[in-house]
Amino acid sequence: MHYFVTLIVALLFMSAGIAEPVIAQAILTDSPAIQWEGKTQQTLDSLRIKSDGSIKLESCADITIIACELRSIELINCDRITIRNCWLHDSARIGVQIGSCRQVLIEGCRMENVVSGVYACGGQGVQVIGNFVRNVQGPFPRGQLSQFDTVTGANNIVRDNYAINERGKSRPEDCINLYKSAGTAESPILVENNYLTGDPIDGSQDKSANGSGIMLGDGGGSHILCRKNTILSAGQMGIGVAGGHFIRVEDNFVLGLKSNVSSNGLYAWNQSGQPSDQVTFTRNRVSWVNKDGDEFSWWEGGGVQQLVLSENHFADTTLLKAIPKPPSQAPMPSKPWVSQRADGAAEVRLPWKP
Q1: In whole angstroms, what is the distance from residue 83 CA to residue 22 CA?
Q2: Of 268, 349, 336, which is closest to residue 25 (Cα–Cα)?
Q3: 232-260 pLDDT, tens per residue?
Q4: φ/ψ (deg, to 5) at 81
Q5: For residue 255, which phi and psi values (nearest 5 degrees)?
Q6: Entry pTM
Q7: Contact 80, 103 (CB under 8 A)
Q8: Among residues 174, 245, 235, which one has the least CA distance to residue 206?
């Protein structure tokens, strides 16, 4: 198994033109729960957080957390926080909870059996990149790989993440949700190249009757670009636009098989209570079978002005034969952070045994 995981990671980096990294298990040091206020320029490296398993930072800046095993991280009014290659698991809390922070990066982490993976309320410059998230527990309104709640401004990204929610082991809502969140014209919120799946065998069976693969413009929002994502029966529907302005949904692969909750593949339906316009769906490949066994790739619920559909392939019967391969072998994150050792070798250092 170690050889196979190493091979998968090596191929990922070779395809990106990066030298093959060494896969290394971090030697962890036990630490009590950490609660800091006002600290700057600190690094937490290779710790196993005991007690309640939490790190809480308030009004801190320039903090890096690397290769730690713990239950949860909470950030309040912080700046320039980096979380890389951590393992957050088995917690009745959100994996990484962010409140009114700026420039936060969560990269290459493994999150399992947590309420949600990442929940960001307010702030800007939040980046959720290359993580593996399995079996979020909810309950509603939580239950996401990542949710942005009133996140605004430039450089907000949810990219290259891999989510699995198994039947009977998870309670997901939307895998990715953007609620009242707005990018800028020059730097839209980017939801890109994520691989989102329900149960590998049973799909969305017994999942939430409201949850989606990706929900955009929830409650409103603007300047969002959702592209090149793969959604495989990740919720009752694939991708929805529920309001907002200047939203583009492009080049996504959306496949949903029949289940007791399955509904439709793509929709535009303004439920925000505010005007909604400038919404575009283009070059998406979609096949979605609803709970009655009928193909239901697209639905327009009304309330969106200047809605444009172009070059989409609905009811695409070829999708079953062209399902993209997962970006990594679970539980390896799809884009773990690569560091450089003293001898110059590239290294992926993990707080679990590969």
Answers
A1: 20
A2: 349
A3: 999 999 999 999 999 999 999 999 999 99
A4: -110, 130
A5: -130, 125
A6: 0.94
A7: yes
A8: 235
